[in-house]
Amino acid sequence: MTENFSIAFKEDNGETAIVFGGQLTIPFIQKLTQEVKEKLGQPKALHLVVKEVENIDLTFIQLLYALKNTGKKLGYPVDLQMELPDDLSSLMVNAGFGQLLNQEKKN
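^ thats the sequence. predicted structure below, dont judge the formating
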């Protein structure tokens, strides 16, 4: 299956940023999760950026929550920035995940 998602890792002074985009859905979640596990390590801080999203589903939301919970357990801050198209933002809010859209700079 063609990979219709993007994932980029950027490190600076022990802090890691992961930028996700494209199709953030169940057909690609195993590959996304595998790449995160292989490359994450234990940063001083983790910045999650979700942008240029074509589609998103619950499996990706679960990955975001897992990354935030891992940071909390291991003692590093995790912040999340989501830039979604209006239709996907509305879907997130209506599904009860609107709080994710407003979690920048929170642990």
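The chain has a mean pLDDT of 90.
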